[in-house]
Amino acid sequence: MAKSDRVEESKIGSSSGDSNRSIIIIGALFFIFGFVTWLNALLIPYLKIACELTTFQSYFVTFAFYIAYVVMAPVSTRTLSWLGFKKGMSVALVIMAFGALLFIPAAMTRYYPLFLTGLFIMGSGLAILQTASNPYVTIVGPAESAAKRISIMGICNKLAGAAAPIIIGFFLQLDKAEELSRTTNESALDEMALRVIPPYIGIIVVLLLLGLWVYKSSLPEVEAEEEEDENAALKGSKSIFDYPHAVLGVITLFIYVGVEVIAADTIIDYGIFQGFDFETARGFPTGTMVAMIAGYIIGIIAIPKYIKQENALKVCAILGVAFAVGAIFTSGFASVAFIALLGLANSLMWPAIWPLTLADVGKLTKTVSSLLVMGIAGGAIIPLAYGALAGAMDKQLAYWVVVPLYLFILYYAVAGHKIRKA
Question: Where in the sequence is the signal peptide annotated (predicted)?
């Protein structure tokens, strides 16, 4: 470890109070991740009605938001190199606030491309924010307990995901909006579009206040540098390809996000396929979320006291294979329950993959973090493979697609994260 890194970490660890304050701030940021991201599920039906869209057009909501992670990740690296982690997070929150601000003229005009522009800008700010905050929570404490801290962040994220539809849904009143889907009354549609303004004004205020809080906070500035002589073999490296474990880690995170989205986003449709009515099936994602939160709590208690983060990743990958096979070879509620339990299998993957990938990358910490954030694109691409198989065979057999993916994650946990360039 470089001398400056040891100095920084000693400063960070010198006061448990400072460490706790840092965790609280980062936890607030992860809450924002969840709140903003989970709003997309609500915006799709809302904008479909308010902007008179087809179903296909309405799904550009998710495209505009998630494509920002791929487009902006390289920009994220340069931004953080220029501003540093702390100021970079503050700027990212301001960028997100500007994206939310565009919702006001978009609502007044019911101009869909302007909504999409706002979503892209919010996703861009979020890409920078995640690029900084994920390694930040890894660095602000001992490396062996990084997965435990990220598990806490995961709970903040999922709690926000549960709160967002309830809070914003109160303003949008989608139950009443359903009646408007069968009308061409322009004044009624205009009135509906304006409902998004009050909650987004609130989001703007919260983002700006949080940005100011981060800027004024005592968060330490952490500079990742090259390693000293004990890592001399890596010291001269100038490309991510000189760190095979990091390349494999980015691929692993891409795969993980894909299987997580499959588990969460297909369960309602799969429940209906298994014979449940919609009213019952729409509650199944709650089971996935509860299973995931349970996994986070286990991680907080067990890592690293009882289990190392790489071993936790092994267990999760094995559970992923077992639960997927269980879903394929059972039926009815049992099969759906196995899909929900994939939330438990997925819970500790993100917390474990990040620190294992960032280990020993030295001055490339920000670059690798940027690539890891780009890996979120797996949630847009891998579920398409499930959809193709579901159309070609049936929705149950299509879950075979996740089995080799979990096996790759298992490979990374067992051997892939240990590979270093000679």
Answer: none
- The token pair that represents 9 in the structure block: 């970490």
Q: Which tokens sit at 365?
A: 């910490």
The pair of three-digit structure tokens given for residue 47, joined into one six-digit string: 């904008």
Residue matched to tokens 């994939």: 342
Q: pLDDT grade, residue 6 (50/70/90)? A: very low
Domain locations in the chain as residue ranges:
1-219, 230-422
Q: Among 363, 372, 350, 354, which Cα is nearest to 73's?
A: 372
Which one is the CATH code of 1-219: 3.40.50.1980, 1.20.1250.20, 2.130.10.130, 1.20.1260.10?
1.20.1250.20
Q: How far is CA 255 from the centre of its chain?
A: 13
- How would CATH label the architecture of 230-422? Up-down Bundle (1.20)
Residues 265 and 127: beta-carbon distance below 8 Å: no
Look-up: residue for tokens 């709140």?
A: 35
Distance CA 55, CA 49 (A): 10
335 close to 299: Cβ distance less than 8 angstroms: no
More confident position, 416 or 67: 416
332 and 275 Cβ atoms separated by less than 8 Å: yes
| Number of neighbours of residue 339 by Cβ within 10 angstroms | 27
Token digits of residue 17: 């109070």
The span from the CA of 363 to the CA of 223, in Å, is: 8
Residue partners of 154: CB distance under 8 A and separation at least 6: 30, 292, 293, 296, 347, 350, 351
Q: What is the mean pLDDT of residues 83-108?
A: 91
Residues in the chain: 422
Residue 117: both structure tokens together: 């522009």
Question: Alpha-carbon distance 224 to 397, whole Å?
Answer: 46
Task: Name the band, by pLDDT with cuts 50, 70 and 90, for residue 349.
Answer: very high
**Contacts of 187-196 spanning 24+ positions with Cβ under 8 A:** 189/49, 189/50, 189/52, 189/110, 190/110, 192/49, 192/50, 193/50, 193/51, 193/107, 193/108, 193/110, 194/107, 194/108, 195/107, 195/171, 196/46, 196/50, 196/103, 196/107, 196/171, 196/172
> Do the domains 1-219 and 230-422 sit in the same CATH topology, yes or no?
yes
